[in-house]
């Protein structure tokens, strides 16, 4: 960063705050882009912490962009958060809760394009990977898991093993034109499952397994077959990442899982078999 | 065939106009005529003159784009007087330009000039006071331009 710019960072930060709070969406979106650009460029320098005060106003602009359909601008903002996760500087640490709520709002909504949902989910995964302990400390594990389990429950398409199958829309098989509603549902399913898998792998098990098993148990004993399906699916997903801790709880999990293999609903039985296999 | 004298404002405007012509042949002709001219540091003054005085948007736009391309390389060759004049002139031109596209291109010139200035540890306090002024301007366009300029400054100066 040019040395001449460094003393001006506090002034620039105030200017960015003003811009993000501007009543004109043209100005606030331009300010958001400028902040994004600055964070990307000066991210490795300690001065980036001077931009911390801009983050909340920046999220407000992103929220308003969501309302007025400027999804591209939101994606740009989320890209910056992804990069901020990789920084040594704790720029986003105080904002993890707000960002998580914002991202979960995008992921569960049916209004937004898959591109935005994918970016939101990738941002969440970056946060989980780079700030696992802090995410746990801020009690974000249970709310994220609850949302993701509900997402899996809502899907009508096959849930079991989606994460572990090849996605025909990735790589050389990608062909957007051939996508239909079922494919979109599968994408959302995969997105939820991948995020849960990430949590199981990265968040220390002492912070993750207890809330996860509690939510799984709630799901598996629910009257709602979709929740029973989701509970089993999540158990299968986290089995690898948390194998040691799950092994300790097998005596309480296994009987219920075996019962669910005889569930009247085939999709519950399917997920129970998947979990048992895992 | 003798080369066109591009230090003449009308000739330069004519050649800049060729860059937006509908025919590739004409565009190439314009580029060919500009090539030797753009190797001279003095071209910056003539381009600035076009941005300031030409009435045609397309000419001002090309002049600004070419100036942005050349500024960084020529800046070390300018004398102190020209350097100071450039700083003041470009900021004024950016604020007075009526067309949005040209304004954005001039903002690009300002950002490149900031890079050149800061890389030699020179000062440009007027840049920051202009930014502050623009951020509080009643005109929405100017406020948006302010952030556009800041985006470009961040890319070029960091």
What can you tell me about this protein's structure?
The complex is a heterodimer of chains A (278) and B (158). With 278 residues, chain A is an all-alpha fold. Chain A folds into 2 domains: 1-130, Serine Threonine Protein Phosphatase 5, Tetratricopeptide repeat, CATH 1.25.40; 139-278, Leucine-rich Repeat Variant (Alpha Horseshoe), CATH 1.25.10. Chain A is 70% helix and 0% strand. Chain A has helices at residues 9-20, 25-42, 52-67, 71-86, 96-108, 114-130, 132-137, 141-154, 181-202, 205-220, 225-238, 243-260, 266-277. The longest helix of chain A is centred in the C-terminal third of the chain and has 22 residues, at 181-202. The model of chain A is unreliable at 168-176 (pLDDT under 50). Chain B is an all-alpha fold and 158 residues long. Chain B has one domain (9-157): Leucine-rich Repeat Variant (Alpha Horseshoe). In chain B, helix 1 (9-18) crosses helix 2, helix 3 packs antiparallel against helix 4 and helix 7 (125-135) runs antiparallel to helix 8. The mean pLDDT of chain B is 91. At the A-B interface, helix 1 and helix 2 of A face helix 6, helix 7 and helix 8 of B.
């Amino acid at each position: 960063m040019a040395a001449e710019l460094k003393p001006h960072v506090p002034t620039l930060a105030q200017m960015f705050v003003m811009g993000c709070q501007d009543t004109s969406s043209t100005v606030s979106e331009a300010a958001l882009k400028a902040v994004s650009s600055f964070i990307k460029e000066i991210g490795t320098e300690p001065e980036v912490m001077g931009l911390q005060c801009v983050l909340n106003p920046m999220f407000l602009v992103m929220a308003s962009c969501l309302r007025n359909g400027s999804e591209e601008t939101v994606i740009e903002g989320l890209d910056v958060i992804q990069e901020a996760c990789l920084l040594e500087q704790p720029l986003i640490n105080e904002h993890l809760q707000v960002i998580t709520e914002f991202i979960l709002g995008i992921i569960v909504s049916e209004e937004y394009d898959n591109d935005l949902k994918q970016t939101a989910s990738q941002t969440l995964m970056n946060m989980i990977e780079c700030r696992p302990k802090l995410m746990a400390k801020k009690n974000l594990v249970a709310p994220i898991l609850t949302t993701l389990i509900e997402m899996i429950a809502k899907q009508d398409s096959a849930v079991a093993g989606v994460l572990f199958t090849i996605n025909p829309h990735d790589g050389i098989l990608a062909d957007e034109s051939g996508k239909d509603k079922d494919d979109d549902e599968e994408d959302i399913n995969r997105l939820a499952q991948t995020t849960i898998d990430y949590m199981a792998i990265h968040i220390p098990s002492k912070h993750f397994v207890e809330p996860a098993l509690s939510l799984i148990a709630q799901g598996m004993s629910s009257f709602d077959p979709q929740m029973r399906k989701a509970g089993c699916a999540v158990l299968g997903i986290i089995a690898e990442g948390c194998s040691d801790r799950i092994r300790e709880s097998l005596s309480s999990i296994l009987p219920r899982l075996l019962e669910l293999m005889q569930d009247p609903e085939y999709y519950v039985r399917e997920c129970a078999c998947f979990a048992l296999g895992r | 065939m003798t080369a066109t004298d591009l230090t003449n404002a009308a000739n330069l405007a004519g050649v800049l106009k060729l860059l937006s012509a509908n025919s590739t042949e004409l565009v190439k002709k314009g580029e060919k005529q500009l090539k030797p001219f753009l190797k001279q540091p003095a071209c910056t003054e003539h381009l600035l003159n076009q941005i300031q005085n030409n009435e045609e948007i397309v000419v001002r736009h090309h002049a600004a784009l070419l100036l942005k391309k050349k500024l960084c390389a020529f800046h070390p060759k300018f004398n102190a007087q020209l350097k100071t004049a450039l700083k003041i002139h470009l900021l004024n031109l950016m604020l007075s330009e009526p067309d949005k596209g040209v304004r954005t291109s001039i903002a690009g010139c300002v950002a490149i000039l900031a890079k050149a200035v800061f890389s030699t540890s020179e000062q440009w306090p007027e840049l920051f006071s202009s930014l502050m002024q623009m951020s509080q301007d009643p005109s929405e366009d100017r406020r948006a331009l302010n952030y556009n300029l800041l985006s470009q400054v961040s890319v070029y100066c960091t």
